[in-house]
Amino acid sequence: MKIALGQINTTVGDLAGNVDCMIEFARRAESDRADVVVFPELSITGYPPRDLVEKPSFLERSERELERLARETAGLNVAVICGYVGRSDSPAGKRATNSAAVLAKGEIVFRQTKMLLPTYDVFDEARYFMPAESQQLLTLNQSKVAVTICEDAWNDKQFWERQLYRRDPVDELIAAGGRLLISINASPYHMGKRALRKQIFSAAALHHNVPVVYVNQVGGNDSLVFDGTSFAMDASGRLLACAPSFREDLTFVDFDNRHGDLRQNLPDECEAAYQALVLGTGDYIRKCGFKRVLLGLSGGVDSSLTAVIAADAVGPENVVGVGMPGPFSSPGSITDARSLAQNLGIRFEMAAITPVYEKFLEGLDPLFAGAQRDVTEENLQARLRGVTLMALSNKWCAIVLTTGNKSELAVGYCTLYGDMCGGLAVISDVPKTLVYSLARVANKRHPGVIPESVFEKPPSAELRPDQKDTDSIPSYDVLDPILRAYVEDYQSPEQISTERGVPLALVKDIINKVDRNEYKRQQAAPGLKVTTKAFGIGRRFPIAQKYVE
Fold this sequence. Notes:
CATH superfamily of the largest domain: Carbon-nitrogen hydrolase
Strand order of the largest sheet: 5-4-3-2-1-14-15
Radius of gyration: 25 Å
C-alpha cells in the first residue's frame, strides 16, 4: 500500500478553505499513485476550535464540508482520511465528537471517534467532546487498519511509567486484528517534542509488530505552533518516511517496497525553536488579517531577536521598528537599534518619549507631594512607549509585537500597559538565556544582522541611571534554571535549592515573585509556546489566592 501523508496548515474556522486545501493535496496524491492520503486531526475545522464547537451551526457546517470533500474527490482513485467535528448520537453528554472519516468514490465509508480526550496542559477536549465507547477496524485495500486520533495512541503502558487512562485504544484495535496503525494528530510543538513522538511510536511499532503512519498538523493557531514532522515506520520501528518540520508537505511511503520520502527537518532543537517562532508569528499575523507589524527597538537582544523573527515571518518590507529613547537611554542603544534596522532592511522611525515624560512629571509632581522618585517614574516611561506604539498601530493598521521574554514575565520584571502592550508576545515563552542562543541562530541565518555589541552589553531596561537587570533580579544563568524547575517541572523550593546548589532564601524569593505576578500574566498578549510549560492557556493559577510554597 502506498500512503500519502498530507501535512497541511489549517486555519481554525475556515472550513471551506481547509477542505479546498485537502482537495488539492488529494489530487496530488493520486497523481503519484497513492492508495490513500491521510490528513491531520480536525483537519476540516482546524485545531483547536475551542468554543466554536458549542455552536450548532459549526457542527452542521463541519458535516456539510465533509460531504463536499467526499463529492469533490469522488473521481479520484485515492481514499481520503481526515478529521472533523461530528455529532454525538448519545442522548446525554456533549453534542460534539472529535472524529475521523474515510472517503472513497464520493462516499463516507467509515467513521471513527476519539476515545481518549486530553485535559492537561493546553488541552481541554473533555469540555467539548463526547468520547467513543468503542472503536472499529477499517478495511483498506484488504488490510485491517487501526485508525486512531492523537491521544488514542499516546497511552502505551509499555512506554509510560504511569498511564493517564484505563484503556489503550491501540491495544484493543491491534488485538482485534489490526495490521497497520494510522494516527492523525494535532500535536503542538515544544522543544524535544519531535524526538519524543518518534520514541513513542517506535515503541508502539515494536510492541505490536505493526507499521505506523503518523500525520500531524503544521502551522500556528493562536498560542500553539504545530511542527508537522509527520512520519511512517515499519514494524521494527525503522523510519521509512519523514515530512519536514514547520512547513506543508505531501510525503509518500510505500510499504510494499519499504521505502519513503525522508525530508530534512532541523535536527538542531535551537534552530527548530527559532523556526517555530517564525511560523507561529507569521500565521498569527496572517490569520488575524494583518499585513504589517511594528515593535519597539531598544537596542537590546530581546527586541533585536523579535525584529528578525518578524522579518522572517512576514518580510522586512512589512516590519517597522520604532526607537523611543527616554531620559536614561544610552547612545549605544540608539545606535544598535538603528544598525539592526538597517542590517535587517526594515523601516526605522524615532519617537523620543523624553519631552512627553517631562510634561507628565510636571503635571503629576503636585499630586506626588514631594515623594521620592521610584518605580512609578520608571513605569511611566514604559507606559509612554506603550501608548506611542498603540497610537502608531491604530494609525498604520499594524499589529504591535511585544518583545518581553519568559524570564521577565515570570518574575514580573515588565510593566502592564507599557512594554506588555501589543497583540502578540513573540518570545514570551523564551527564557533569557535561550534568547541569546536564538539570536545567534538569527545571525547564522542573516550574518551580522544583530550587532555584536548587542550580545556584549549587560541587559538593562534603561529606566534610571546606570540601571542593570541584576539590580532587581539574579543573573539569568542563575534565574532561568530555577524558573524552569518551578514553572515547568513543579519542583518545591527545597528540591530546587538542593539540586541547583543555590540558597533556599533566593529560591523562595524568586518563587514568590512568580506567584505574585500572575495578575500581570493574565493580562498579557497571547504568546507562542515553545517550552513544555508556557504561561497562558496551559498554566492556570488563580490570582486571588493565599497558598504559599
